[in-house]
Amino acid sequence: MLTNLHSIPQTEFDVELIxxxxxxxxxxxxxxxxxxxxxxxxxxxxxxxxxxxxxxYQTTNSNVHRGVHFLSEKATDAYEHAREIVRRFIxxxxxxxxxxxxxxxxxxxxxxxxxxxxxxxxxDEILLTVFEHHSNIVPWQLIAERTGARLQVAxxxxxxxxxxxxxxxxxxxxxxxxAVAHVxxxxxxxxxxxxxxxxxxxxxxxxxxxxxxxxxxxxxxxAQLDCDFYAFSGHKIYGPTGIGVLYGKRALLESMPxxxxxxxxxxxxxxxxxxxxxxxxxxxxxTPPIAEAIxxxxxxxxxxxxxxxxxxxxxxxxxxxxxxxxxxxDDVRLLGPxxxxxxxxxxxxxxxxxxxxxxxLDRQGIALRAGHHCAQxxxxxxxxxxxxxxxxxxxxxxxxxxxxxxALDECLxxxx
Length: 416
Ligand code: C6P
Fold this sequence. Notes:
Elements lengths: L14 H6 L14 E2 L10 H13 L10 H21 L7 E4 L2 H16 L5 E5 L8 H10 L2 E5 L9 H5 L6 E7 L11 H10 L3 E5 L11 H4 L3 E5 L10 E5 L1 H6 L10 E4 L4 E3 L13 H17 L1 H19 L5 E3 L9 E6 L4 H9 L3 E2 L1 E3 L4 H7 L4 E5 L6 H18 L1
Parallel strand pairs: 1-13, 3-4, 3-5, 5-6, 6-7
Antiparallel strand pairs: 2-8, 7-8, 9-10, 11-12, 12-15, 14-15
Ligand C6P binds next to helix 4.
């Protein structure tokens, strides 16, 4: 049995062939070719994912785990097969460790509500970094308020670089949980997870990794990382919206109380007492996102046949070219380091609002994001209200990067 989908032999990378798989790339906003550089917000979907979802509704649609009829069994098989694909994709050891959720946000809220309520006490510490997404801050604030635990925050250096030692030294006997982004959605830096896990486990703390910006860009193996929880969203890895994954070590998931109550998460209900279903169903109350899970599995297979290492090598070229060309424009300030970044390039320009940049570029057919990127504490750290951000996917080309940066240059000449 394959333990990890990343071990599938990979085909040669041809960006034009890849582009042909994504019908939306034929769109022409304002009559211009679409240059989609907002992939950190959400990625586009290949034919095979769209087809799989359509096929599901045309041939299989039914509720899962509930019926003995033909369609229900077919839908259940497809849904459970999707779980197995996810398991292999992230290198989890057991199928029970894969919980389907609505997305990264729900995965983190599940852990905060369930694990947090059962394990946190006054004086306990939850360690985050200053560059976390709001989805990996607010759930911890909510549970800290309920339990009396406190948030601790690992800082960045003044120049926007990250020193892992500054995080490690904050893991103490009081730390109960460390929750960190694998890849920052603003800085693009990749956190070394292993030393964090090692130090956290040494003091008896657990580690949750927010993989929202990682899974589409680097080969993740949760068994190797040895993290306790790993969260990601389907829509950021060429899959549908409305589906996400929470990986959790079996023993931890077993020990946690349910997150939501409803159908499918129970074994027996009486008005006096309810007993709960086995993993992972204990955490999947109600009708799950069935078509979405099946679509996600198709997306993961698609990514696996291309190969994450191949994708990462291509995206590295895109990001490096973007950083290099931005460096040639006066007054552009890059947020984060020049090198060692994955997927995203965020920047600010003195005297120009990022929204004006995004609006100007939009008229050239270029989609990028401007705003606080749901990372307001990081914007505060840099002393800016917002930034502009290019974010790449495997279907972007070097020509698109060059076109986008020359449009930016034109925009700044116009606005300044
Ligand atoms: N970041 C971005 O444009 P959801 O919304 O649940 O799929 O993902 C939340 C999330 C959690 N962590 C990180 C590191 C993220 O980047 C995101 C989503 C998008 O950067 C939308 S704000």
